[in-house]
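How a chain folds remains the central question behind the approach discussed here. In the encoding step, the backbone of a single protein was reduced to a row of integers, each denoting a local shape. We regard such an encoding as a compact summary of how the chain folds. The sequence in question and its structure tokens are set out directly beneath this paragraph:

___
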Amino acid sequence: MIEQQLSLLLVAVPLLAAPVASILPNGRLPWLLALVVSWLCLAMAIWQFIIVLDGHIISYELGGWSPPWGIEYRIDAVNAFVALIVAGIAAVTMPYALRSVEQEIPKKQSSLFYATLLLFLVGLLGIAQTGDVFNLFVFLEISSLSSYVLIGMGRQRRALTAAYQYLIMGTIGATFLLIGIGLLYAETGSLNMVDLHARLENALDNRTVHTAFAFIVIGIGLKLAMFPLHQWLPNAYTYAPSVVTVFLAATATKVAVYVMLRMMFTVFSFSGFVRGTPADEMFLILGTAGIIAASIYAIYQRDAKRLLAFSSVAQVGYMVLGIGFGTALGLTATVVHIFNHALMKGALFMALGAIVYRIGSSQIDKFDGLGRQMPWTFGAIFIGGLSLIGIPGTAGFISKWYLVLAALEQQSWFITATILLGSLLAVVYVWKLVEVLFFRETSKNSKIKEAPLSLLIPMWLLVLANIYFGIDTRLTINAAKAAVQLLGVAP
């Protein structure tokens, strides 16, 4: 009974805390509340993950209505792992937020900022917890609407343009997703994921269901910034406040990848709806194109946050490739990369946030020699960059290794070469940052000090996690394998 209540509390606690934060006096009190809530959510997410890791499933019936008639929170190893990632990133980001938000957000808006940030957390955790497709849509919109507000709070006026662009693209994606869900409901009369799967097994040739599948894939594709539906992401990451960029980059697209996995493998049958159809090749083609195109775009960026934003599009391409393979190895690579990419991008954007904290800009041409003045921040960028490239001994290597194994299993030499080419292109744009930060002569930045400890400690927690999970892979690989089994893919 306690474990069932836990699945609800993980969403309810930040939901109840958000309006409280909004009425607290502007200053540090809203931050303190958000900090306590985020760590409480992390504790509950860890407990929940331990419970389900052995194959146990938690089911909570909201309002006492039995599924499929009522809304069900259904927790297994797949979504418990995603909820753990979201709660963990939130818990690390909140201590980082204190000094960064004080500099980038006007004090009179601090209560609103932390209330909105908690709502964003609610949306992401709700997506991970629910077993109902319409409830999933509702939480997806909660996270999206709150992210529009958070992005618009950036210091530059371009932040408003970025938020508006994201709003338009996000609304289009939400509309496609809702149309798809509506078509499924019209055909089956159910919104429960497990019940939908059972009903759809006898509708493999139904055109309405195939149309619903297409709408849902496009809608989620917009949310996860799958190439070429990624146009909202670079500006959103570039012009949002640093803390928002950290949290958004480390969680939002990863949760959207989870939604894609859940819809394609739990609701629909991958072998029935995708295997042998044009969609089978579509994911592989778009994943490949995203890796190459976004990596090339990243090389030519003059803004470091924008560089990493395009890098994120490329990293989403790797996850899409794993989905496209539809095999145990491919999905293992995708699930592991959801975790590993959250670590590396969280660390890298925190490091850039520390630079922005000191010099007020993320323009690369203003970074000359900063690595010598901010050695700990430079070290975080260097190690995070190695993980992004996929150097052995870092977390990024593990997921790319499994993806290469998946490609070799399918004897797909072109995709194997694409994965390696993506890593080589990552070397180029990571080196671009390293060269400017460390090997160029210091000019006017000679008096810049290292970032404060409140920024360095969370940053280095993620950096060390990149190293630890590149060496000890038991947690990530075991969780990924358990997730793959629950998604119905045989090894």
